[in-house]
């Protein structure tokens, strides 16, 4: 016989079970959206050599063309938080897709018809603009799901992005080998990505985003002053941004220069240079997949310090070690670079009421490294050689280790130990 409180307990149990099912479905949906984002970005980058040949560009002209994509992203990132807050993460991502993927189609069409380079640049700017909003919105939804599940799973989402880039690179290599036109390739990617993202975002947590006020939060927390205060004036947010910038520089430098450093610095073949980059990417992805348990067990600050320290050690092995040890260094560097960016995003999203603004600020600061990093390494490489220029990564990782305590969750957050 069920007691007086029995039906209520049964209803509460069913409600918790339903919430858990929804949270895990949303987790899978966010993994999918991150993966498609990586696939779309890397589909473009995989055809850059073909673009250079098709438009007959010099290295300098190509760098200016690629700058249009970065500038578009940096324009989208600062406003993405407000868009996500106003529309919700689901609608924000769908809007971003509706901007970025047509931009990609414009790029592909302009290249195929040998249109003037400014038209290609406009298409890349529009693509970057949408990608910036997409990136922030998916990270906001990731922090919501992470809080609901109660585990430090943000690195999984970034691992999905990395996996998407690897798949896109392999597909791009095959299509290039068989001389598939750029317009056909990017057009198919844009169409498939739009369908998958529209379906995936439908499984996001219902009527929820990172701006939602928790039911047990004090009313004062949602006051107008809390919402209107600029996240750009918050010291903790800015220091998290510095840490994320260091993490982005550590990752981006390897992506752009690892293969070149092994070829020019260690005298290896171009193929072995690519192998070194692949080693870095594989171990970075593994670090993001398996590092979540370390975060839940030991807390953010301690794990981040160890990871950034590993990146320093790996960098030193790459620069000063013999050839075989340099490959080991690339693996250690990859693991060390794996958690800084996603954990920084989690830290920015600790407070649901302010998450959209803070993640937008932190993303803007962090992505600045992807814009400034390649030219900085190129300048240092001209003076000291590309291999020794990689030591800049070690220096910025030391800075990240010093500011890592800002990632500790506030006292009211129970996601991880700190």
From TrEMBL:
Gene Ontology molecular function terms on file: transmembrane transporter activity
GO cellular component terms, semicolon-separated: plasma membrane
Alphabetical UniProt keywords: Membrane, Transmembrane, Transmembrane helix
Presence of keyword Membrane: yes
Principal location listed in the UniProt entry: membrane
Ranges that cross the membrane: 29-46, 58-80, 92-113, 119-137, 157-176, 182-200, 238-262, 268-290, 302-320, 326-347, 359-380, 386-407
Major facilitator superfamily (MFS) profile domain residues: 23-412
Membrane topology, from the record: Multi-pass membrane protein
Name the UniProt record assigns to this protein: Fucose permease
Originating species: Propionibacterium cyclohexanicum
